[in-house]
Amino acid sequence: MMEHVLCGCKAEPLMSYLKSLGVFKIVSRQADVEARGYWLHKTFAVRTLLQKEDILDFFLHRYAPTPLIIPWGARSGFYRESSEKQARNALEALTTNDDERFKSFREVVKKTCEIIKRDFGGRKPKEEEKLRMLRILRNELPESAVEWLDTCYTLTTTTAGRFFLPLLGTGGNEGSGSYGSNYLQALQKLLCEWGPDSEKTISLLRHSLFNEGNPKLSALSTGQFSPGAVAEVNASEGFLSKKKVINPWDFVFAMEGTTLFAGATTRKLTSVQSVAASFPFIVESSGAGVFHMGTKEDTYGDIYEFWLPLWNRPATYTEIEHMFREGRAEIGMRFATNGLDFARAIASLGVDRGITAFIRYGRLKRQGSGNNANPIAIPLDTMEVRMVKNIRLIDEVEPWLNRVRWAANTQQESVAVKYKAHLRDIENAIYNFCKKGGSKALQNILRSLGRAERSFAVGGTAEEKPVPPLSNLSPEWLRASYDYSPEFRIAAALASIRNKEIGTFRRHMEPVDEHGWGWDDNSSRTTVWGRRPLAQNLTAILKRRIMEGLRKNVPYVPINSKVKVPLSDVKLFLQGSVDDTKIEELLWALIAIRWWEYTPNKHSMPMDKDSVARPPSIYCLLKTLYLPGKITPKNVDGNLEWHVDANAEEGIHIPPVPEVLTLVESNRLEMAIEKAVRRLKASGLPTMGSIKTKSFPDFLVDIDRYRLIASLLIPVWEYNKILDNILSPSLKDNLIQKEVIKW
């Protein structure tokens, strides 16, 4: 077989992609049934028995055009109105030509004229009669026209009774333009007026297939297929293009290629069990990943997207036809319905195998202005087909995200604008993850969810909030989105704080019920998070949990957690060397995790267990006062180690001392230190230095008071380092010398 790289057949713009399909269809059906086609770096290639000159000769002299007619639409050529003149003249030239290549054309046109005369009195059908015409044509036209009819429309059981393929506008018309008329005119010029042996027709064919030469192009409208051929402002060189010029062969082949998108009705499992039309690789619009799309364009059902497949394995036309007719993008048990769904399907391999990538086109109204604007197919992106690790985690967000979509589309504009903005933010993050994968991209989804949750939680009663709290995220999100940053570890540790008597950390951030599944106005009194810096909010939460613990007789500070961080993270937090915004955004998302399912072996994040970092002694001193359990010393191979255990029967119990935090917050650090030292000594834990001489080791350092208090809330595990850093060495020596350590 010979391999021909068709340099004139590219994957972009849309007309060139469709042209590639059309050329391959014609060669395979009419010249070489064993021909194989594939994409080579976004250029179409064909393997065939035909030589290059044989291909050219075939299209010039034996190619039989498909009868693509639209008698239900404007400028079809079947009627006597003045607007029909150009199409009528072209249709007459083709059907009066006795060349064998136009045989099927003549048969279809003859039968169509009989139907128009018999059922519609020879006139153009009125609007209410068009559906009847569509049904009659589908039932009575020869087989050679059925594929085209199925491409233009699908008959349904809906109120409208039919659905038009967005690729061809409203059944072959785009505004006042007609794809059918331009197809007839292009064929008439090439094969009748100029003739197949004319130098003009031949040079245009070489240019169309192989990008050879520079022939003069023709004035024809391409509709949405080719933005560069649109006579609009800034559409070409200069301020305004005067004419819409294209290669007529390009348009002919592109129209032939559209028949691969023949539609079929698909029953969609909805509440009304309706039957809607389904065309392959065509979905409703999504603004995800498209930053130049306006808010009005980002409305599902208003505009459409075409996801056109690329494949690099040579395949027969029958195989490609099967891929188009049967190919559907799926997410779990349902079809993809919009652009974001399609991206998720690609990332989860919910599409037919053998496809290497998809080119995403948006059908955006950019030609003209106002209500008269017509759509143009604009290439938006190219997405490779590959399995993205952890893509199934997005399924957990989908129910909540659907509620956000509902709020964005149903609430009054002053309210909906907030939901629309966050919806776009979240969908962009999901789209980027589908395209690139990786923990960083998945973490960005969490951050966008956190920003939305923080925004939705503010203001109004529970009844006034149309979107419930974010919830039901599995602990698998932790490892999947972990980027080994101190910010992520701190956020996860804080979010995992739970206590049986006091409840979750989340209760202090937003007014939610016990499980975080719904808004609860009665719990608002425990909510202390406000429009303040992170450290101040964490300070407020620590003070609140201490107060509630004292009221409920909890014998320790109720900041037990599932996740703990190394002291090196606390040191960075105290220094202000962490990204507070990142911590806060992650925190607002991670509070939605089902922490009761967390198990260390399955969900814990890798951390440095041998950290040598030591926070300032003032932190160690204060942290000792606010521990989530009893201090229990243990003799391990002759070495004394300190542990903190909330369930220990024996150990040192240090009751919380709220007034120390008040002194720190009011910048009376020396008094706070003195009170803390006295409290520890009274508990049998003498510290280094002397209260009388105030010779405390580096206790007085320059640290932001709110960061110091907030750091006490962060769960840690290195209690041994904390206590060794402040307690008197003689205490440890005395305990080691004892054979039995008992308090």
Describe this structure in words.
It is a single chain. By secondary structure, the protein is of the alpha+beta class. It has 26 helices and 22 strands. The strands form nine sheets. A four-stranded antiparallel β-sheet has the order 1-3-2-14. The chain has a four-stranded antiparallel β-sheet with strand order 12-13-17-18, with helices on one face. A hairpin with a 3-residue loop joins strand 19 and strand 20.
List how many beta strands DSSP finds.
22
Radius of gyration: 36 Å
Please summarize the sheet with the most strands.
4 strands, antiparallel
Strand fraction: 5-15%
DSSP helix fraction: 40-55%
Give the overall average pLDDT.
87
Contiguous helical run count: 26
| Straight-line N-to-C gap | 90 Å
Helix-strand makeup class: alpha+beta
Described by the principal axes of the CA atoms, the overall outline is elongated
Poorly predicted ranges: 231-242, 267-276, 739-743
Strand ordering within the main sheet: 1-3-2-14
Q: What's the structural blueprint in terms of helices and strands?
A:
Elements lengths: L1 E9 L3 H17 L5 E5 L2 E6 L3 H10 L23 H11 L7 H18 L9 H11 L2 H10 E3 L6 E3 L8 E2 L2 E2 H15 L5 H12 L7 E2 L25 E2 L1 H10 L6 E4 L7 E4 L3 E3 L19 E7 L4 E2 H10 L3 E2 L2 E2 L3 H9 L9 E11 L6 E11 L13 H13 L2 H24 L2 H19 L18 H6 L4 H10 L2 E2 L3 E2 L29 H18 L15 H9 L4 H11 L9 H4 L13 H9 L4 E7 L2 E7 L12 H8 L3 H14 L22 H7 L7 H6 L4 H9 L6
Antiparallel strand pairs: 1-3, 2-3, 2-14, 4-5, 6-7, 8-9, 10-11, 12-13, 13-17, 15-16, 17-18, 19-20, 21-22
Helix pairs in contact: 1-9, 3-7, 4-5, 7-9, 11-13, 12-13, 13-14, 14-19, 16-18, 16-19, 17-24, 21-23, 22-23
